[in-house]
């Protein structure tokens, strides 16, 4: 079977996306192609029914969609292998943080069909949040398969490419903020005498419900927060202490640091 969507690289984010796609059933494993430098990784995917390629050149040849899922630090080294068999009809879906559409066009062709994408690890649960920006050469017909692929495990928002670094702390890196907060709060719960698994389930379910409420209630984050800011209450005591210790400043500075690092990666 010739794979429709083919991945260069099979790291954590690719495995998360493929887990979500398996749950959706939109694609069979054989419709997904994989190349990874590790023979053990390729063997594992082959055993699970995926179409495996022995080289980047073979993967790229006559591919409808190629997903570039390597780190910015190594991406330049694989361009010659992509270019050797690259077709003008192939759409590149780039997951490499900081790497612009223009970067590909300068190294492949100036009419290269590139869709820049910031994915999220939450695709693993079928709840991905993908921010994408298309190069001018990507028509609606070109984009159709990319959209089908991404929406099979999450939502897709198209944004201007000028904001593709600014979006990283909003979706791509954001799960880590939540996991960090969960770890701190659950650790504190354990110190207070609670069972770790019980605390984790309570906290995670509450955050899951909070996210769904924010998406479906029609109310702003501020309005929902104010519902809990009761004078003299426990929630207000916590929020006041967080304000006192600079919680908002920490978040804002973290967002800025994330964006700055994305821009740095684009210059490697």
From TrEMBL:
Residues 5-98 form the Pyrroline-5-carboxylate reductase catalytic N-terminal domain. NADP(+) binds at residues 69-72. One of its GO terms (cellular component) is cytoplasm. It catalyses: L-proline + NAD(+) = (S)-1-pyrroline-5-carboxylate + NADH + 2 H(+); L-proline + NADP(+) = (S)-1-pyrroline-5-carboxylate + NADPH + 2 H(+). GO terms for molecular function: pyrroline-5-carboxylate reductase activity. It holds the Pfam family P5CR_dimer. Keywords: Amino-acid biosynthesis, Cytoplasm, NADP, Oxidoreductase, Proline biosynthesis. Pathway: Amino-acid biosynthesis; L-proline biosynthesis; L-proline from L-glutamate 5-semialdehyde: step 1/1. GO terms for biological process: L-proline biosynthetic process. Residues 161-265 form the Pyrroline-5-carboxylate reductase dimerisation domain. It is found in: Cytoplasm. It comes from the Bacteria. InterPro entries: 6-PGluconate_DH-like_C_sf, NAD(P)-bd_dom_sf, P5C_Rdtase_cat_N, P5CR_dimer, Pyrroline-COOH_reductase. Its EC number is 1.5.1.2. Catalyzes the reduction of 1-pyrroline-5-carboxylate (PCA) to L-proline. PANTHER family: PYRROLINE-5-CARBOXYLATE REDUCTASE, PYRROLINE-5-CARBOXYLATE REDUCTASE 3. Belongs to the pyrroline-5-carboxylate reductase family. This is Pyrroline-5-carboxylate reductase. It comes from Eubacterium maltosivorans.
């Amino acid at each position: 079977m010739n794979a429709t969507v083919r991945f260069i690289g099979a790291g954590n984010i690719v495995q998360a996306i493929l887990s979500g796609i398996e749950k959706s059933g939109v694609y069979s494993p054989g419709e997904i192609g994989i190349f990874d430098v590790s023979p053990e990784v390729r063997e594992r995917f082959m055993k699970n029914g995926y179409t495996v390629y022995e080289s980047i050149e073979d993967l790229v040849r006559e591919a409808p969609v190629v997903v570039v899922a390597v780190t910015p630090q190594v991406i330049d080294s694989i361009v010659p292998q992509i270019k050797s068999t690259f077709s003008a009809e192939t759409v590149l879906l780039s997951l490499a943080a900081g790497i612009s559409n223009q970067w590909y066009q300068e190294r492949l062709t100036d009419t290269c069909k590139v869709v820049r994408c910031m994915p999220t690890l939450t695709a693993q649960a079928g709840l991905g949040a993908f921010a994408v920006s298309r190069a001018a050469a990507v028509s609606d017909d070109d984009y159709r398969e990319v959209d089908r692929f991404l929406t099979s495990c999450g939502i897709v928002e198209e944004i201007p490419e000028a904001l593709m670094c600014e979006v990283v702390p909003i979706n791509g890196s954001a799960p880590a903020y939540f996991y960090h907060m969960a770890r701190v709060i659950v650790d504190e719960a354990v110190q207070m005498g609670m069972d770790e698994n019980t605390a984790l389930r309570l906290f995670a379910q509450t955050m899951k419900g909070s996210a769904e409420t924010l998406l479906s209630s029609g109310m702003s984050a501020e309005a929902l927060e104010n519902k809990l800011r009761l004078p003299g209450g426990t929630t207000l005591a916590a929020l006041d202490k967080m304000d006192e210790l600079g919680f908002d400043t920490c978040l804002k500075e973290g967002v800025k640091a994330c964006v700055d690092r994305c821009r740095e990666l684009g210059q490697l």
